[in-house]
Design a protein that fits this description.
The chain has 256 residues and is mostly beta strands. It contains two helices and 17 strands. The longest helix has 8 residues.
């Protein structure tokens, strides 16, 4: 849908061996045009040359609390030995919809790190597909989502180990209140030739109310035999001892 409808394309190209010390910030602001509903389809392409280093921030916001639909796509190409640190901050209004896909390809010895923060939206979905296409490529996916009311936060990640000696690390954490719902599906694929893979995945969720709900599914598909892979999910409520500690020092139950 994004490929069919996008009109504005942003391309960031980092020259080989270039070290960009300041962060590059791409800001998307959606606003409803009069009475008409808005479908925005922004597209971002990041091309990091060999042995380059860069940090890129991708932000999404709405003007006011308009009911806009943002359908975003991001393509990241990390060449051999390059390092890309990517931050995504999604803080659209509570009435908005945000569906986003990110496709990452990392070459030999390259490093890609993602920090995804989701703080708003009636429905927010993020799909991340990261392919480790070169020997020794590395991928880190970090995420935090905070949801309340009747919102839904949906996260699907895939890390595809296609080559040997590739480590990956993934930690996603969520805080849910009200009647909020969250979905986390984290898939790690280890191909037949991807020996010496080291993959770790963790999903933790904190439910602040009885009506909040999360469905979590860590997933491993391993076709190689010389690998080290771990995954797990933890869902819980606030620690009663910690709450008692705060309330005993004069802090109200709600603030604690």
């Amino acid at each position: 849908l994004n490929q069919a409808l996008f009109e504005d394309l942003v391309v960031i190209e980092i020259a080989p061996k270039a070290i960009v010390r300041e962060r590059i910030h791409v800001l998307h602001v959606a606003q409803q045009g009069g009475r008409a509903s808005v479908l925005a389809s922004p597209r971002l392409v990041i091309i990091a040359g060999e042995q380059s280093q860069s940090s890129i921030v991708e932000s999404y916001a709405t003007a006011g609390n308009d009911a806009v639909f943002v359908n975003a796509a991001t393509d990241v190409h990390v060449a051999a030995g390059a390092l890309v640190d990517h931050v995504k901050l999604q803080r659209q209004g509570d009435a908005s919809f945000h569906l986003a896909s990110m496709f990452v390809s990392t070459g030999r010895g390259g490093t890609f790190t993602s920090h995804a923060v989701t703080l708003g939206g009636r429905i927010a979905r993020n799909d991340i597909v990261s392919a480790l296409d070169g020997d020794g490529a590395e991928c880190t996916l970090n995420g935090l989502y905070v949801a309340g009311g009747d919102s839904l936060v949906d996260t699907h990640t895939t890390i595809d180990h296609a080559q040997p000696h590739c480590p990956s690390h993934e930690v996603y954490k969520g805080i849910l209140s009200g009647r909020a719902r969250a979905v986390f599906n984290g898939k790690i694929i280890v191909r037949l030739d991807a020996q010496k893979t080291d993959a770790k995945q963790t999903n933790k969720a904190l439910l602040l109310t009885d009506d909040a709900q999360i469905n979590t599914k860590p997933q491993l598909e391993i076709f190689a035999d010389d690998v080290k892979c771990t995954h797990g999910a933890t869902i819980g409520q606030l620690d009663e001892d910690a709450l008692f500690y705060l309330k005993a020092r004069g802090i109200s139950a709600l603030e604690a």
